[in-house]
Amino acid sequence: MASAASVTSLADEVNCPICQGTLREPVTIDCGHNFCRGCLTRYCEIPGPDPEEALTCPLCKEPFRPGSFRPNWQLASVVENIERLKLVSTLGSDEEDVCQEHGEKIYFFCEDDETQLCVVCREAWEHRAHTVRFLEDAAGPYREQIQKCLECLRKEREEIQRIQSRENERIQVLLCQVATKRQKVIFEFAHLSQFLEEQQSVLLAQLEKLDGDILKQQDDFDVLVSEEICRFSSLISELEEKNGRPARGLLTDIRSTLIRCETRKCRKPEAVSPELGQRIRDFPQQAIPLQRKMKMFLEKLCFELDYEPADICLDPQTSHPKLLLSEDQRRAQFSYKWQNSPDNPQRFDRATCVLAHGGFTEGRHTWLVKVDLAHGGSCTVGVVSEDVARKGELRLRPEEGVWALRLAWGFVSALGSFPTRLALGEQPRQVRVSLDYEVGWVTFVNAVSQEPIYTFTASFTQKVFPFFGLWGRGSSFSVSS
What we know:
By secondary structure, the protein is an alpha+beta fold. Helix content is 40%, strand content 21%.
């Protein structure tokens, strides 16, 4: 069946140029154009300005004779078919509402058979005992069910979209973490490569020095041996010559000759001195620092790949008014001048401390703290629980939800139940803090020497935050990943 658009297009092609409607009893004039018979007759009856002037076609203005109309039966048949198609197209939308069996309009719905019925179907024997309702009445409960299904489906779709959004964000985070680890591996191996090249140069230089010392001692040995061989060769020649003389010649100065031979001191030179030999035997000890460095490198690399670098920013809402925070919120400095900071429940009011944004409820995280105590004072670094006291005195110990170190000029203390001063190889100025939430470890390491400083063991049950404290004019710290 032709579509409504195609039928309308065909109908436009058989319109009368005079009335703009569908051609009725189409006739053709001399120029070949077609018009409705009635329209063209009325057109010919309209008097013109000159009664003697011939009539012209309304379209092309070609003259024609009024009695020259020719009925166009073929076109009339086409117009009739187009009209029929238009009617079918108009009624096509109602065909679905008509019973295919009886040709009657459908009014009812049989709920038992889930079938739409006309009046004749309704009276049929097979539907008399069934529940039959009007279409709209029967559709009502189904509309309600559909509405409930739509609500459920929309909620599930929204949930899936939320999951998609969340997982996409998680994927982006993981991609960033992988990129960070990639850069870390590249950086660490580049650093190791430089160190290995330097160590190779040092070891090769030492081997070159040993080569030179061995060759020098070989030259000295060769000279000494040559001198000894010459001395012994001279004595041998003298004795051979003396032994070949007659008795009188042999006995002349014989005692002096024998004494010189018997009292000779034979020097037994060594090609390699004991000191040089010991240096050669001790050379493998020169690789011990390299072995130690490789061990530290692997431990550090595994550690940094295992722990996620935390993007730490200080939270100004928690900062004590005596702490000056940098614009990027990654550095803090102590000042005796109080800042104009509004009071709020999150802010420390007595302890000169500040927390980081965010906090952690899972995972392994690490961050770097660079401490500057050039003018004295102290700095406290670690983690605290979310409910740590913000107002009044803050006791820095695990029982109060604080796991931290205090770095002061000349000493470092672990702030346990009782503060413990730590014996360290060197005073740390860069401390790497690492948190393993599930295991419950808070680990501190000297970021420069990689020397372990201290490890707290805890059982975390709520969110924990990176924690920092300062005291003393000019003391400051900065944080990074």
